Every structure is written in structure tokens, then in C-alpha cells.
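C-alpha cells in:
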């Protein structure tokens, strides 16, 4: 599941995005989570089936920038476990004061500190978790439709026939290992517009907006080789990051805050309305299951959800007897919590994302090649010799926007222009970094100013040394006294130098 992959990548942030996968027994909750975990190195997460009440405090394992995986929420029923998890998810640390006997047999106090930040991945058959944990997690609902079950059976049959190749996770693990040492600082230029656009009816939106923005940051970190870096060394998130995250979580967040009704619950309520309208008699769960041609356990779970939302009423008040269901009022029209791109973009249309190849070698595999494999997370790649702009989700009736988005851009011509502009920007970034932060190594400057591209950095330093703006002594680059301050209009690298560098690179 793409959302789980993105959530686990958010472990690099100060507040990882925790996920609760919900569904009936045998719906595939643990399988989906387990398959996604295969894409991550084992040291990324700690897998608990269940825990003793105080294991989280006494465990010798580090929780810092890792996920705790619990196969079933039943392992969280103990109040101590719930308290420790809430502390890790909210405060990013466990502080547990206890009393122990020392070497002399006397009692002495001790404080156990387990540092995060830590995320949680949990599966459950319940409609909701403990109220304190529910708002701290993003709820994902397993697709339990008949069509999905048919696809699962077909996939299993293909595996029996050896028609599906085994996945090689080596490069995926290498990507996550590289990300561990990459840039984790992200700025979201449209954060204020997003905060002003979401509905504030539900109190939990104050926590949900953090999850949304953290997923945007995680997406930008994952695609940082294709993102700009600002003067403070932060990856600049784009509307492409927002659009990818919105497509993944808009429905889930809208259901959590009450702006939508889950599709399975809506189907159950409509079935009760239809049966009640035909007979004007209370409806039983078995009748609903027969009407929907659905499993009784699935209907039972959705009926509970409809009752908790006040969409149905059970007239049977005696325990142990079948429910007598009647509809209650009309369901509200579904609406979206997350605004579309046009409401966030300053000029009314989404910005274009252009891939800038900047390979960095890791374990003999370029990051570019690893990222290209990540097809599910919307990596934009050039097609043949052209880059196609990202198509907007809604631009009907806008002739100017249609013309803009339908025009291909020649990749070869764009490459020279972009490289010239990028080197000018990187030169200013190098000069400002040296002026503000003092002498730096080439590795640091390449990583912070040139997206890890040592060749580009060497070109820049060559020109700066010739002009006397910097000096290189004992492996460190120094800002030369009296050198002009880097401004937005300065250009230390000429067009000829750029073209010469391009030729040498080729």
C-alpha cells in the first residue's frame, strides 16, 4: 500500500505519520502491511505481535526514527502499553520513573528514558481504536468488495502457476539506506494556503493537518533529487507532492473528520432504507447481508459503524436478540477535506514538475535508477526526448491552461538552459554558505548546494578560485575576504563555462 510506504518514509521527520489499518478478519490487513514492510530494511521497524505491560519502557532496542509494528490492536489493550505508545507518538519520548533495588539491596529511584521520534503501524478489526490513539493515527480501510476478492484469488492462482516473478528488494533497501543519510529538512511554500483551505468543523483536524503536511514532506524527501533546495538547505516541496498525497489520503482523512461516510457503511444504510421502504418493518442484519450479497461479518461491522454515526437506529433494546434496524434521517453529501490544486496555486493552475537527473552512486546503483523503479509514487520521468508537463486534474474550459499543459518541451534544449540557471543558483548558494557558515568540505558543499553532484561543484569552485572569490586549503573551501556577496543577479559561471562543462560531462 502506497500510503504505508510513504508513512514509513516519514520516520525521518520529528513526528512520523502513524497508521491504523482496519478491516474484517481475513480481509488482508496483515498481508498488505507485511508486503509493504518488505520494501524496508529490517532495522527500520520493530515487529511486536503483543507486549508485556512495561516492555516498551524496559526494551533495550532503540525507537529513534523507527516504527513499532503491531499485528493486532488487541496487543494495545493494556493501559501501560497505551500510555507508552501515546507518549512516543505525541511527545517523542518515554519517561518512566520506577523504584529498583541497588547492589546493596536498598531501594533507589531510576528514570528510564526511551527517545523517539517513533511511528506506529497497527492493524485492527475494530471500527476505531482507543479514543486517545485514534486521533493520533491515519485510518486506512481495506478494500473488501467482491471485485477485490476476485482479483486476490486470481493473483494467488498466478503465483501457483509461477506467472509472477519474485520481487528483488535490494535496490529498495538501498534507497531507504541512502535516504537515512540524505537531506530531511523540507519547507512547504503553500502550507499557509493549505491551513486556510481545510474545514475546521472537527477538532481532530488540528492533528490531521500535521499528518497531511508530514506526508507531503515525506514525499518531497523521497523525491528530493527532483526538487529544488532553498538557501537554508531545505528541500522545497511542490504542488506535485501535495497532489500525490491528496490522491492517496483525501478519502481517508475526509472519513476520519466526518466529511464523508465510508462506502461500505453507505451501502449498508442504503440497503436498510430500501428494505424498510418496501415493508415499513424493522430490518434484520441477515436481510441486509442477503440484499447486498455480502458476508454477514462484513455487514455486522458496517452496521456497528452506521449505528455509531447515528445513521441507523436499533429498535431492539434487549441484549442477545437480533437487531431491528430502521434508517434515521438523510446522509450528508460527501465532501473533500483537502482542496484541489487550483485553490493552492497562486496563479490558478498547478505548477510543472521537471525531472533533473543528478545521479549519486550508492552500492554501484544510481539513486536515479532506484527512484525510477518507484513507479507507484508518481515519479515524473522524461519520455523519449521530451518532458511532458504534469496534466492538471481540472482545467476544463481554460483554453490558455490547455495550451500550456499540452505543449511538449524539448528536453535537449531545456537541459542546457536549466543547467546554466542551476549552476548560477548553486554558485550563489555556495558563496552564501561559505560566507555565513565558514570553511566547509567539498562533500558538504556538494550535498547542500549541488544535490550531491560533485562534478557541478568542481566546475563552480574552479571558476570561483580563478576569480579569487574562494580558496581551497587542506581539503576545505574558504570564503576569500573581500569577495563580493552573492546576489540574485550575480553570475560567477559563464554560459561558455556551462557549455564546456556539458561537453566534458558527455
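Residues out:
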Amino acid at each position: 500500500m502506497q500510503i504505508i510506504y510513504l508513512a514509513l518514509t516519514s520516520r525521518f521527520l520529528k513526528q512520523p505519520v502513524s497508521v491504523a489499518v482496519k478491516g474484517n478478519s481475513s480481509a488482508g490487513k496483515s498481508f498488505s502491511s507485511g508486503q509493504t514492510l518488505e520494501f524496508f530494511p529490517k532495522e527500520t521497524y520493530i515487529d511486536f505481535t503483543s507486549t508485556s505491560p512495561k516492555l516498551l519502557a524496559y526494551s533495550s532496542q532503540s525507537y529513534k526514527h523507527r516504527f513499532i509494528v503491531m499485528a493486532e490492536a488487541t496487543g494495545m489493550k493494556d493501559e501501560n502499553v497505551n500510555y507508552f505508545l501515546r507518549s512516543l507518538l505525541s511527545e517523542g519520548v518515554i519517561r518512566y520513573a520506577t523504584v529498583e533495588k541497588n547492589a546493596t539491596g536498598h531501594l533507589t529511584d531510576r528514570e528510564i528514558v526511551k527517545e523517539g521520534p517513533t511511528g506506529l503501524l497497527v492493524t485492527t478489526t475494530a471500527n476505531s481504536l482507543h479514543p486517545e490513539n485514534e486521533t493520533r493515527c491515519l485510518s486506512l480501510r481495506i478494500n473488501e468488495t467482491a471485485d477485490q476478492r476476485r482479483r486476490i484469488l486470481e493473483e494467488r492462482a498466478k503465483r501457483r502457476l509461477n506467472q509472477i516473478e519474485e520481487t528483488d528488494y535490494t535496490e529498495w533497501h538501498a534507497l531507504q539506506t541512502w535516504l537515512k543519510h540524505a537531506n530531511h529538512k523540507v519547507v512547504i511554500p503553500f502550507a499557509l494556503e493549505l491551513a486556510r483551505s481545510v474545514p475546521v468543523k472537527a477538532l481532530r483536524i488540528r492533528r490531521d493537518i500535521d499528518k497531511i503536511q508530514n506526508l507531503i514532506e515525506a514525499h518531497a524527501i523521497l523525491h528530493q533529487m527532483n526538487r529544488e533546495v532553498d538557501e537554508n538547505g531545505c528541500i522545497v516541496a511542490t504542488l506535485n507532492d501535495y497532489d500525490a498525497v491528496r490522491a492517496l489520503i483525501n478519502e481517508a482523512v475526509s472519513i476520519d473528520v466526518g466529511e464523508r461516510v465510508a462506502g461500505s457503511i453507505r451501502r449498508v444504510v442504503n440497503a436498510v432504507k430500501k428494505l424498510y421502504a418496501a415493508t415499513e418493518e424493522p430490518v434484520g442484519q441477515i436481510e441486509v447481508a442477503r440484499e447486498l450479497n455480502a458476508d454477514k461479518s462484513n455487514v455486522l461491522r458496517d452496521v456497528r459503524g452506521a449505528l455509531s454515526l447515528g445513521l441507523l437506529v436499533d429498535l431492539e433494546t434487549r441484549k442477545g436478540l437480533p437487531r431491528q434496524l430502521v434508517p434515521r434521517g438523510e446522509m450528508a453529501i460527501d465532501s473533500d477535506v483537502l482542496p484541489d490544486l487550483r485553490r493552492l496555486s497562486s496563479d490558478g493552475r498547478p505548477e510543472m514538475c521537471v525531472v533533473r537527473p543528478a545521479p549519486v552512486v550508492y552500492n554501484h546503483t544510481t539513486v536515479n535508477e532506484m527512484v525510477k523503479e518507484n513507479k507507484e509514487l508518481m515519479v515524473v520521468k522524461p519520455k523519449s526526448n521530451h518532458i511532458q508537463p504534469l496534466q492538471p486534474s481540472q482545467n476544463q474550459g481554460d483554453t490558455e491552461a490547455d495550451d500550456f499543459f499540452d505543449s511538449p518541451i524539448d528536453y535537449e534544449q531545456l537541459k542546457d538552459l536549466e543547467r546554466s540557471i542551476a549552476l548560477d543558483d548553486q554558485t550563489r548558494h555556495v558563496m552564501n554558505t561559505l560566507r555565513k557558515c565558514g570553511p566547509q568540505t567539498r562533500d558538504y558543499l556538494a550535498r547542500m548546494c549541488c544535490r550531491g553532484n560533485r562534478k557541478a561543484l568542481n566546475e563552480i569552485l574552479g571558476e570561483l578560485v580563478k576569480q579569487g572569490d574562494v580558496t581551497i586549503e587542506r581539503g576545505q573551501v574558504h570564503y576569500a575576504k573581500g569577495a563580493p556577496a552573492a546576489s540574485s543577479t550575480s553570475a560567477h559561471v559563464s554560459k561558455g563555462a556551462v557549455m564546456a562543462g556539458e561537453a566534458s560531462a558527455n
